Here is the input.
Amino acid sequence: MTVPILKNYVQGKWFEGRGGLVDIASAVTGETVAKTSSAGVDFKGVLDYARHVGGPALRKLTFHERAYILKDLAKAITDKKEDLYKLSTETGATRKDGWIDIEGGAGTLYSMSSKGRRELPDDVILIDGAPETISREGTFVGQHVYTSRHGVAVLIDAFNFPVWGMLEKLSTALLAGMPAIVKPATQTAYLTEAAVRIMIETGRLPEGALQLVVGSVGDLFDHLIGQDVVSFTGSASTALKLKSHPRVLSEGVRFIAEQDSLNASILGPDAGPDTPEFDLFIKEVVREMTVKAGQKCTAIRRAFVPAALMDAAEAALKARLSKITIGDPALEDARMGALVSAAQCKDVREKIRELAGEARIVHGDIEDVEVIGARAKKDAFISPVLLRCDDPWGAKKVHEVEAFGPVSTLMPYRDLDDAIALADRGEGSLVMSVFTYDGDIARQVVLGAGAFHGRIIVINRDCAKESTGHGSPLPVLVHGGPGRAGGGEELGGVRGVKHYMQRTALQGSPDVISKIVRSWTRGAKTDAGAPHPFRLKFGELELGKTIETAPRTITLEDIEHFAHFTGDTFYAHMDEAAAKANPFFPGRVAHGYLILSFAAGLFVDPAPGPVLANYGLDDLRFLTPVSPGDSIKVRLTAKSKKKRNDDYGEVRWDVSVTNQKGEPVASYDLLTMNAI
Amino acid sequence: MTVPILKNYVQGKWFEGRGGLVDIASAVTGETVAKTSSAGVDFKGVLDYARHVGGPALRKLTFHERAYILKDLAKAITDKKEDLYKLSTETGATRKDGWIDIEGGAGTLYSMSSKGRRELPDDVILIDGAPETISREGTFVGQHVYTSRHGVAVLIDAFNFPVWGMLEKLSTALLAGMPAIVKPATQTAYLTEAAVRIMIETGRLPEGALQLVVGSVGDLFDHLIGQDVVSFTGSASTALKLKSHPRVLSEGVRFIAEQDSLNASILGPDAGPDTPEFDLFIKEVVREMTVKAGQKCTAIRRAFVPAALMDAAEAALKARLSKITIGDPALEDARMGALVSAAQCKDVREKIRELAGEARIVHGDIEDVEVIGARAKKDAFISPVLLRCDDPWGAKKVHEVEAFGPVSTLMPYRDLDDAIALADRGEGSLVMSVFTYDGDIARQVVLGAGAFHGRIIVINRDCAKESTGHGSPLPVLVHGGPGRAGGGEELGGVRGVKHYMQRTALQGSPDVISKIVRSWTRGAKTDAGAPHPFRLKFGELELGKTIETAPRTITLEDIEHFAHFTGDTFYAHMDEAAAKANPFFPGRVAHGYLILSFAAGLFVDPAPGPVLANYGLDDLRFLTPVSPGDSIKVRLTAKSKKKRNDDYGEVRWDVSVTNQKGEPVASYDLLTMNAI
Here is the structure.
């Protein structure tokens, strides 16, 4: 069989490296499965292409248009997933491991697409927060926004998740409107290349939005600028090298690092051997040791249990670990596959030897391993190794040295504060887990350890069935961690998108701010002329279109009537003396809901028309009480619009109810669904 | 007169440097006004003190308690402002310059204090966004939070705003619960020291929360850890040196840099010499050149005008500049004071000579200056210098070299795209301004230049009177910028606080999450027993306390009655055939406000009690239409609480209205004010 040569996808075409080919070996058989090189790639040209072709094309699309592209990419990967699973086996991954990578990757695209459509506007500017009051008269206002950075997202991935690792970064970069250059780890680049090929072949990506470099990045870093973002996943040493690059430092290139860390798991002091939490803890530690053969930057490296439970925990872990079969990941019987390469396996063995200076191996064998499947060569396989360290404060390496394989160290703690302090000795990690049924213990952990961990998962009997587990980053939650974990942050829905954008504070008149952000701001011009705004279809309705109603007087009879009709006979509406004694009211006042209802009666236009439904209301505040005899009137102004589908779209209206003195009575956003 | 020796405030006491004293000269007279040294300071001890004494003390306080401390610090500075003004004169600052620094500094404390009380909880954990759905059945939920970092905030300030520069950083760090070490620039350290002394003397700061180093930071950087934050304002070269420190890189220390930048101002293509915007532009450029003698990192360094208006703009600028009197800042007649030192003045002259290779000086004289006031020695004074460069694309230094004094360069542009591209040639700046009356032009500028600028201010006739100006960072708006400006971000209200905190994604059962964040989450346990929750005072009410009401059937008569009473005769409520034709309704349905009103009737407890008022409602969504004959019932649960003052506090209730089939009809947060 001919060994395929991987190609770079640069400047709009597939490009085979000019010499310097590197062999990539199968983790299972040791045979060469692909060759790769990026020699001859014009890296400055690649950056320029992204900046001058891909960036402008992506920035012309709205968030929603970009989100629909992500959905189509996800579909394409899902459709061809079996091709990817086949390649995945060669990386040492079982079907279950591959599922995390391949379907987890597609799922991330789907999730970000959905978030993009639901939480981002159908525009290119993202509004950040409410307008800020910065002047007395309101003629000068502040508004924060995010716009797409004008550079390139350089996405450097680790070997362990060649599909997911790319897509978790790519989904947010593309949604943010930034073109990307993907650089996979060489060991598993063939799987990334196949996934990129599937995405390019959809034809849905704008020219220049996605490029692929399979091999060294050459002098790419020498041409980075302040608008670029480097998002890196991998070892701390490589991260340090890259973020120390003179160009990264001098240009202020945004650098997002996600590094391996010494993640901890704590069995709560309340979780004795007879509790469900004890069993859940044992299962989770073993799962995290063996899934992906422990090659996960989120795996549990340090397992802490109450000192009295050390033996019980050790016994339970060993019992469970002994059931792990290891071998050719293509076989259904193999619970754990291979490490990515013989070199990686050798490195893991060396790291275990380092740890064994402070801890003793209580399960597993670093010299030999029993492997099932005829294809499997032993070089990249290793058995799960559990270490036990009884003096975690005297030890140092167990908190610093990561064996990136199926390896974990069991350690005792004295009390909860001690457990927290030990977890924090990892000096920053991606995730920690706590097994407790006690919410107060969980809070104490978050207060003591939150600053050291990007994610904290609390597992107990109530959530175990639905828990996604210690080691699984989710698209809607941030992934990353401080200190040793790199200090970066990815995903987290829209939070992850913002890393590829620039926040800017805008200042100006309400009119100008409204025009810029396409959202009417209080103080900006309104158009209160005919027709009634409810007569205008979604597409015809301009922001600022307003109705100012006639006034309506609210009588004591109205209040009494409303009270008896609705059953809301709260004393502030019914009892003059009691109402007067209330610190907020001058006497009996109208119900807030009566004001809302009368306001609707004032502005509504009853006949069928483009307004289909009132589907909600936001930020309602009652500002001045309404006494019997007061009259109210309403100003309702089209504030912003968001197309939902080809039939209708959401319209947000700014509503202000005032009394006969012009004082504000109520203020809110009204939400309607309007026909296109 | 004895020259005072500045003291460090470290490890809980005032400490005079052991030798190595450096003289600080008055900018006005050149005489020594103070001596300073940090020799002998134990920097590792200073860091440890902050970490082990200051940090824990601050983290025990809630955001509100910290906010009240800021308010008291602001008051103390305001009370002693005249002492500070006196010192400020010696830095070369006029009264107006000093106002920005001293009262602007106190104002920043006041503003952050107010933001902290209004926008942060009375707790130590800050909730970030709504809970995330991560399971089908809802037994496992996600929630992002921020907690205080466990390290030290090292605040390194520039010489130009010795009070404000410290306080804009300190206010956010303290509010976030991080202890701070302040390191002012030596030239003006005497003013910072005086301000620190005032704050320490209030006795309001917890031990270890604030330390001061007047002099070199010695080996402090060698002891930084991943939990620390360095926030730096100053030159790009010093920033580069500090952020390249091996310890900063290896530990992942968060580094916030705010550097000088080549800020641009654009006179819009619509703003001819006869427009108000033209005059506003001229005024603003001159103001930015002369306030603080141009020693502001936000000053306008590059002024762009339509090519045809070059001569008009030059003439107008020169006319205005010629009115600037220069001299002893203690004199009321002096419109502009001195640069901070003779050395700074020499540097500015050199930079102007560099610029003059590409541009010509059209106003000012770098060799000589006319100075008023007998005290004033000429060494640190310079006249405003306007340069003109007619080939901004051919030039390079005008976009790169900053003369940190009263210096600006006037340049032409061809069209708006050209102006934007020229502004972006600064490669990242803190602020740009645009003078236009056209909102579409403003939007185009934000789309083209937003990614390059931390703040964009659009000034025109509508907002000029209330505009705070091109060069003024505001506490509620972010301050910082990408690329050359350092890539950092400060202030922006709560945004600035988050830089000193760590975001963590929490996962767990709704019960556990509710306990951790002290906010009841859907799916968590409720207590629906007696008494009615409205019978409980603020302090007695526990989160999760619930009332589940009896059902009420909504009849067609109710709907008709409500319609005629309120005037809301929208066809969906009144006309069966028309309602059926609507894509959302099965036929005539109840008004949303009828549902809300009936819901209140169901849950309200009418007699006087702890609930004082319903002051609002958030996130209301109508989920399933209610047809005549349907019945609704309500679950209302105490979700979170926030004390407002000693008399009452806000309670947020989670409300769910369901129909007879258990389907969700409406969902919202109800807000009440409850007596303590």
Notes: DSSP finds 19 helices and 27 strands in chain A. The domain at 7-120+150-235+246-255 of chain A is CATH 3.40.605.10 (Aldehyde Dehydrogenase; Chain A, domain 1).
